[in-house]
């Protein structure tokens, strides 16, 4: 049977990055007509190699989501818009709050305004973050947990969600937001450590370097493999309820130290080095995070499929083959 997204007209902002290119590949395989917009900003994850094997099957445009005229022309006639473009480093968001506001706030608003006027019936899927929750009070974390972000990035991601809900409430637009935990997998940028801690550690291990762990590494995180993230977006494109936000996550209780050990084991080199917590770090530390995913599971058949060990194995294999495209 044909997939519901076959022949649909789709735009992915930030589509040359990690999430966007991984989703694009799956959509092309399902028979969708995929357009990609990416600004290819040097420090972010945009990489044309991510699109190498689908380049002839997608329409690729280099440009900025803040270019309203371009956004209007790109969303015209689209059935689905995945809005992934943005500033992705919570560390940079502290040093460059206005840049973060522009990209994650105004950028999202520009996309929504373009859809409102040019494609008001399109479904918009927004990539939000677990960082909207801030300090974790109880685990597992459900969507009703208080949102008190500890970073400018988290504040502006929450702003993006609120914009989406405003457009649903006021104009009846069809928006859905996903709160993504720590993502990892092939096609993630490996240039620096400001984003994607798993990616950076894989690189450190492949270079035989020490991987530094703050404290005893007992903080729990929810590391979600890219294929599971893509599948969640596809399921919620079809079944997500208008104006809602959904958590996704693994159910695996994995500590930071477990993740580092898995990386070292799969790479076969590198070593773990525990160091004291940096001063003032607690201002950003959310505490243990594990998502309650019962909301998405109640309306879809989505379930995470890839264990941390298996995901890291696939990731290491990818970078061993394609290292020169990412270093
Ligand atoms: N837990 C989290 O905090 C979390 C985790 C993963 C992803 N996310 C969100 O998912 C989305 C995708 O993340 P990713 O991991 O694929 O990052 P990525 O850096 O690999 O991809 C983002 C892409 O957006 C592009 N981009 C940035 N600003 C742009 C602009 N103004 N106009 C056009 N393109 C622009 C970049 O060039 C890059 O290719 C982001 O919105 C990110 O905030 C959040």
TrEMBL record:
InterPro entries (UniProt xref): NAD(P)-bd_dom, NAD(P)-bd_dom_sf
Family matches, as Pfam families: GDP_Man_Dehyd
Limits of the NAD(P)-binding domain: 11-315
Protein name per Swiss-Prot or TrEMBL: NAD(P)-binding domain-containing protein
């Amino acid at each position: 049977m044909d997939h519901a997204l076959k022949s649909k007209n789709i735009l992915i902002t930030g589509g040359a990055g990690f999430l966007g290119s991984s989703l694009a590949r799956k959509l092309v395989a399902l028979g969708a007509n995929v357009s990609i917009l990416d600004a290819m900003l040097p420090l972010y994850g945009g990489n044309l190699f991510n699109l190498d094997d689908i380049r002839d099957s997608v329409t690729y445009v280099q440009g900025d989501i803040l270019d309203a005229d371009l956004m209007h022309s790109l969303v015209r006639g689209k059935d689905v818009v995945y809005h992934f473009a943005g500033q992705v480093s919570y560390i940079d968001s502290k040093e460059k709050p206005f840049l973060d506001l522009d990209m994650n706030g105004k950028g999202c608003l520009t996309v929504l305004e373009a859809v409102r006027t040019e494609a008001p019936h399109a479904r918009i899927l927004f990539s939000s973050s677990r960082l909207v929750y801030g300090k974790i009070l109880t685990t597992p974390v459900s969507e009703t947990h208080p949102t008190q972000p500890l970073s400018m990035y988290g504040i502006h991601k929450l702003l993006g969600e609120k914009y989406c809900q405003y457009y649903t409430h006021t104009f009846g637009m069809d928006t859905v937001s996903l709160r993504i935990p720590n993502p990892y997998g092939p096609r993630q940028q490996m240039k620096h450590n400001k984003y994607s801690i798993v990616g950076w550690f894989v690189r450190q291990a492949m270079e035989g370097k020490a991987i530094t762990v703050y404290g005893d590494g007992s903080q729990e995180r929810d590391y979600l493999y890219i294929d599971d993230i893509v599948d969640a977006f596809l399921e919620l494109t079809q079944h997500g309820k208008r104006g809602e936000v959904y958590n996704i996550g693994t159910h695996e209780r994995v500590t930071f130290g477990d993740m580092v050990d898995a990386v070292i084991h799969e790479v076969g080199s590198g070593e773990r080095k525990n160091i004291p917590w940096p001063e003032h770090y607690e201002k950003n530390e959310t505490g243990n995070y594990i998502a309650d995913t019962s909301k998405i599971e109640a309306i879809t058949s989505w379930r995470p499929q890839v264990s941390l060990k298996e995901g890291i194995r696939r990731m290491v294999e990818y970078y061993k083959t394609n290292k020169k495209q990412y270093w």
